[in-house]
Amino acid sequence: MATFGHYLQKIINHGRDEAQQDGSAAVEAQHLLLAIAIEQEATTHQVLTSAGLDHQAIRDALDREFEHSLGAVGASATAFDLPMPTSAPERPQHLGASARLAIERGFTSAARKKDLQPVNLLIGILQAEVGTVPRALALAGVERAGLAERARQALAGTGE
Amino acid sequence: MPGVEMPAPSDPADALAAVAALRRLADRIEDAAVEQAMRSGWSWPQVAEALGVTRQAVHKKHVKRLIAAGVALRRR
Predict the structure, then answer these.
(1) Which chain A residues have a beta carbon less than 8 Å from that of B18?
(2) Whole-structure pTM value
(3) Would you say residue A119 has pLDDT above 80?
(4) Contact A90, A24 (CB under 8 A)
(5) Does the beta carbon of A78 lie under 8 angstroms from any beta carbon of chain B?
(6) Which one of B2, B20, B65 has the shortest CB-CB distance to A88?
């Protein structure tokens, strides 16, 4: 649990960087996923790479999801001819609803708190059936439920 | 696809995702547009009126970022 708490803090911290780069006012589930990809903890790294997902691939999938979702109503992020805004000087502190749900699901994916592993957080993120992350994964051709199952198997394989 | 008429998505998942994406896009455009306006010498009340929000709201949301960006701000 102490180790998981430390890992979670590290991921939220990286997630703040991702959210800031994204111009987001809050850390969302996709920022945690990007942070997990950067952190490359052994088990989560193995699960993500099994689906061809690294930080860049996830970033690309998220960009694609953004354009795809805008396209459904005839909008495009590239259709506006304004210079990119300067980023916020401070990293967002707030955890968005999707990030809070992912963390909560990660916690409940372990039988006991002391069994929590880094991969539990990934499982929590992959449990979302709707929202930005599952849509981005689907657009990237990643079978989310299967990936979540692989993450659970990897968890069982850690022998904890 | 500029200039192409697209029907509203019939799948609620697509429609809801479009709402989330449009909000994100609107925030991004607001950040860019407010910054550009303030760089061009607009005042806070003018920007607020153009956005249809109070000047307190627009000031609170953007002032730190614009100061960090080195934009010379006019008085409120």
Answers:
(1) 69-70, 72-73, 75
(2) 0.91
(3) yes
(4) no
(5) no
(6) B65
Nearest chain A residue to B26 by CA distance is A77
- Distance, CA of A126 to CA of B11 (rounded, Å): 22
- Strand segments, DSSP code E, in A31-154 are none
How distant is the Cα of B36 from the closest Cα of chain A, in angstroms? 8
Q: How many structural domains compose chain A?
A: 1
- Of the candidates A30, A52, A6, which has an alpha carbon nearest to the alpha carbon of residue A101? A30
For B17, name the nearest residue in chain A, comparing CA atoms only.
A69
Tell me the residue range of the domain where A142 lies: 2-73+98-157
CA distance A152 to A146: 10
Nearest to A98 by CA among A20, A26, A158: A26
Instruction: For residues A90 and A17, give the distance between their C-alpha atoms in angstroms, rounded to a whole number.
Output: 9
Residue A133 counted as domain residue: yes
- Closest residue of B to A130, CA-based? B13
Q: What is the pLDDT of residues A16-44, one digit of tens each?
A: 999 999 989 999 999 999 999 999 999 99
